[in-house]
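Case study 2.
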Amino acid sequence: MSSRDQQLELPAQNLTVRIPNAASVVSLAPNNGPLTLQTTKISRVPAGSLVWSHEGAFLAAISPNLVTIYDGNNQEQVAALELPVVVAVSFSPKNTYLTTFQRPPPGSGNAEKNLKVWDWRCGTVMMQLFQKTFSKDNWPAVAFTSDETLALHLVTNAVNVYDPQNFSQGVVKKLAVKGLAGFAVSPNTSSPLVAAYVPEGKGAPGFVGIWALEQLSKGDSPAPLARRSFFRASAAQFLWNVKGTALLALTSSDTDATNQSYYGEQKLNYLSVDGKNDCVVQLKEGPVHDVQWSPSGKHFITVAGFMPAKSTMFTEACKPFYDLGSGGHNLVRWNPQGRFVAVAGFGNLPGDILFFDKKADGKLKKMGATRAENAVSLEWSPDGRTILTATTAPRLRVDNGFQIYKYTGEKLFEQKVDVLLEARWQPAPAGAFPDRPQSPRANGSAATTAAPAPAKASGYVAPHLRGSAGASSSGNFSLAHDPNDTGGRIGVNAHHKNLVPGAPAPDTKTALKNAKRRQRAKAKGTEDTQASEDITQPPAEVKSITEGVSALSTAEAPAQEEAGTDAGKRLRNLQKKVRQVQQLREKQAAGAALEPEQLQKIASEAALMQEIKTLEGQTK
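Prediction:
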């Protein structure tokens, strides 16, 4: 690959690299040859963690008693806040405010206001509250709307809302719901929304609701715009699309009701803001490994199911649209422009990465593949042309370092580090890099960088079948790949539109009722058919009744036709019921467990026989 091609594919972009007790910002760019690292003004600064602002305008370096803020463009220091035992920081959407959390001293109680909102440029505390514990899942603890007109904070049984222009006036409105355990603000600027979650308890189901912030007040909370209830959920993670029109709620429980997973159970729930569509996203049976909305908010991709996991793209309305196939994957990432997609398998998986190009018609075309062994993270570059993978401690303490791969799978750069704690790109503002299709010459390199073919697993073969023709029947099993699953555009199922291949039947109330109704009708039809076909030798009493009815002469029938029509129809129905009773008795004698309705039908046999005798006399 020439330096000219490298300049086309990889403009100069910054990386943050953190090692024990120090961090650096480096520039990765071609220099008339192979890609090289170039140091910047931020080099080996003390830092236990790093936080970029939303568009990479500022960088906060956190050390035990100091938060230093740098300009993301020129790497100059612009502010410093002396804070003892600081644990986490977060920038507001427009970088006006900085939220910090400090670990409270032992025995201090709630007198220590350790959660603070700063005007960091002036070094002024705008609001301070007490928070007992810190959780990454609920950080930032103070969430701002995208236009910074409102700030929200979770307390017991409520979400308090503040006016950032005047924090001193206290709570201006609130969302009061008993048992609230988490919330998330929508990213849209017009008519911002808040989603909140209440876990199940005391036999009552948990639920997720969506409220309009403009409808809240200091009094009772209004009815939610959308709501979905569910059982077996003790935690929830919210995923808004960028337009704020739809929400995905990934619920989880510590235990799996089916006893198939040691790690518990996950369900992905979908809610449209207008309240017209809420459902469980139909996925392959098993855990939900990852899910991500596209940057446009028009699609989302899931990776779910027992291995080999299934990757599926859904529309904004939660209709499955494209099947990416199955494999050893547990992670999905869209590039910032929403054109390329990477599906990967890290952790205890081999590290295979597949690259797809989303076409205008929605089809996802495979561009290339590679394998990043021992990688634990994957992130697209701001220009959307490369990915950064890293092997970091303490997850892994060997082979630490980071790599850069092109979207075809070709490795462009690799850097080994003795102990690497973090490596990530500096974010860029939306629209900073154009949306470019893949290079016409890109397909040529994809073939040479494809991931190694996984070893073909023969699966378990019984001892008496080994070495025989029967042994080949088990050769299609593989943990990492299903050779029969090629993926493609998802069609329309005759009974359920856009059903994901391998997914269970929909579990909505209406679908369950319809399924039970169809099952009862099918069972009844089977009983009727078997009663008429399988009973070749009916009981003597029933046989005599049947013969008596059929013995009516042809000459007598016309005279009795009008008077005996209703009685004859009733008689035939009763005879059918008697045959069904006889069949149930045979099942009972064979040891089959009968339902209460079936036992009740057996108990009515005597009454049926008496009525048959009465009707038989009327039709003679």
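The first helix runs from residue 3 to 9.
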